[in-house]
Design brief:
alpha+beta; Topoisomerase I, Chain A, domain 4; Gyrase A, domain 2; 2 domains; four-stranded antiparallel sheet; two-stranded antiparallel sheet; 5 helices; about 60% helix
Length: about 190
Amino acid sequence: MDLSYNGILNETKDRMGKAVARLEDDLRGIRTGRAAPGLVDHIKVDYYGSMTPISQLAQVSVSDARSIVIKPFDATATSSIEKAILASNLGITPQSDGKIIRLPVPMMTEEQRKKLVAHIKELGEQQRVAVRNVRRDSMKVAQQAKKETKLTEDQEKDLEAKIQDLTKQQESKIDGLLKKKSDELTTV
């Protein structure tokens, strides 16, 4: 790691940003009771021996609020896509006519919603911990840079304050993402 002031700060921003991006990706794959193409983004299909995302094999769209339509570019991939969807534990059984796959998104029960909200909070807490771990590591690097006289004491204190501000910003982004997804689940 670059022990300069800007090097430490940029590395911290990058690593914290990756934690928030990971949460966004995780939340995109959680079913809310509404049809959304993002529900199948994380599913990979065994296509001629290579694990390929559905979005690279087919056009994914929403025909109405309750169904996702997957139209493979190659009709021979239809059965592989169906198998991948079934294996993904999405909780949706695909319906196919050989050319197009339809995913009817069922209504969620209140119990399912509560479980998903708890799961979402757990995912958020994991990423908060990741952000805090980045903060801890960056603070240690800042202290190390001061010991090696790469930073002055004032620069170290300023850098630690900026790292703390970054941590608060990223945690508030995480909170916003969690609130948005929880609201989607509870207002369907």
